[in-house]
């Protein structure tokens, strides 16, 4: 593994905070970080100064010098860089979500399927020790048949820099749902074994980001105020899967309630509850042997760096030519997100299948309420095809 790592020349596309986050872990892992690319001259300067590597204004020059790339750009630009890399035979670690919309996500998935190179989407929370312990217990049958996931990724005040690409729908594709909800949806489906997703009922809201009096203690990035804020800052959804399995989802950048990162995995023999950020894990069960009784078992886990372990898995797959297989999962998540937005606009349950192949006139019918008026309660994430 170590000798293989030393031969995989790796570059980073997108040299902002998450690009630096990945760079630090590449260096710690012993992967040769040989360059970076960003359209911002200042970002290139800072990256070159910190890591003493070549930096490029165009991705073609970087791609000529590497065997693998980590793509950490805003969502809209994932396709451009990932598809070109895969067509060149370069391995790609692509930050979540797969793309900013379903159509772009499908093109990336096709490029990954057609390429001989490895492609991995950055669902780093799968590598949390608490998640891996729960996954192992599910696979060993200790929870029985897992039928329901309660998935929460809720901040009290955590809207990322207003005015940044995160709060611009044309670049991000959405707000809290596509930023935080993408992790919660993937993790829930991952623990369920990625069953077919049938339909979704959801509501998205924009209640805090557009306010002049948005009160917060700290903010990632600069606060340029509410002008142009056109994404959701919270979402609630119910996701129905094959086999009568289901997911209840709560995700938010901002709410008037305590933060919540709790996942509850409900099985017929036992359940597991864990905190995604803290790693606290408890197993709940009941027994009729001897007197009836309930058992709550705390499981102590060792905290781990999930991004570092994600990178290790990526390079291990390259070394052993073992397909990673999570791009199709990421495409499913993208379709679920799309369905939640459509459901919110249509004010009804919608099917997930073939969401990207709906015609504009079909979508127009979906976003009409009973009075024949367009539903404008939430950001128009699902109405891009009409504009």
UniProtKB/TrEMBL annotation:
Organism: Natribaculum luteum
Domain annotation GFO/IDH/MocA-like oxidoreductase: ranges: 132-272
Region annotation (Disordered) ranges: 287-306, 351-387
UniProt-listed InterPro entries: Gfo/Idh/MocA-like_OxRdtase_N, Gfo/Idh/MocA_Oxidoreductases, GFO_IDH_MocA-like_dom, NAD(P)-bd_dom_sf
Compositionally biased residues, Basic and acidic residues: 355-387
Pfam families: GFO_IDH_MocA, GFO_IDH_MocA_C3
Location of the Gfo/Idh/MocA-like oxidoreductase N-terminal domain: 9-123
Superkingdom, taxonomy of origin: Archaea
Full protein name: Gfo/Idh/MocA family protein
């Amino acid at each position: 593994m170590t000798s293989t790592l030393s031969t995989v020349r790796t570059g980073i596309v997108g040299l902002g905070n998450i690009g630096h986050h990945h760079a630090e872990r590449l260096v710690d892992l012993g992967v040769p970080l040989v360059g970076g690319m960003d359209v911002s001259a200042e970002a290139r300067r800072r990256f070159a100064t910190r890591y003493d590597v070549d930096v490029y204004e165009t991705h073609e020059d970087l791609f000529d010098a590497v065997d693998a790339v980590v793509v950490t750009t805003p969502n809209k630009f994932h396709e451009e860089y990932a598809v070109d890399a895969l067509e060149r035979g370069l391995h790609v670690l692509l930050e979540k979500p797969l793309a900013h919309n379903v159509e772009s996500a499908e093109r990336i998935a096709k490029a990954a399927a057609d390429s001989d190179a490895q492609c991995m989407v950055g669902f780093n929370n799968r590598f949390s020790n608490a998640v891996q312990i729960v996954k192992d217990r599910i696979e060993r049958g200790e929870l029985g048949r897992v039928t329901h996931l309660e998935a929460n990724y809720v901040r009290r005040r955590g809207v990322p820099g207003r005015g940044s690409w995160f709060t611009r729908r044309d670049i991000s594709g959405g707000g809290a749902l596509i930023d935080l909800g993408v992790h919660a949806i993937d993790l829930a489906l991952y623990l369920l074994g990625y069953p077919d997703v049938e339909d979704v009922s959801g509501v998205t809201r924009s209640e805090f980001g557009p306010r002049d009096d948005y009160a917060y203690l700290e903010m990632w990035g600069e606060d340029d105020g509410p002008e142009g804020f056109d994404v959701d800052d919270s979402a609630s959804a119910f996701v129905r899967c094959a086999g009568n399995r289901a997911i209840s989802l709560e995700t938010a950048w901002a709410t008037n309630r305590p933060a919540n990162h709790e996942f509850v995995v409900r099985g017929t023999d036992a359940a597991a509850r864990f905190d995604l950020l803290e790693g606290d894990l408890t197993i709940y069960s009941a027994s009729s042997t001897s007197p009836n009784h309930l058992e709550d078992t705390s499981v102590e886990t060792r905290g781990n760096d999930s991004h570092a372990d994600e990178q290790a898995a990526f390079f291990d797959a390259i070394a052993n030519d073992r397909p990673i297989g999570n791009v199709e999962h990421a495409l499913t998540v993208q379709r679920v997100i799309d369905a939640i937005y459509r459901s919110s606009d249509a004010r009804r349950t919608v099917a997930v299948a073939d969401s990207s192949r709906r015609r504009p006139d079909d979508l127009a019918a979906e976003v009409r309420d009973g009075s024949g008026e367009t539903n404008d309660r939430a950001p128009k994430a699902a109405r891009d095809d009409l504009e």
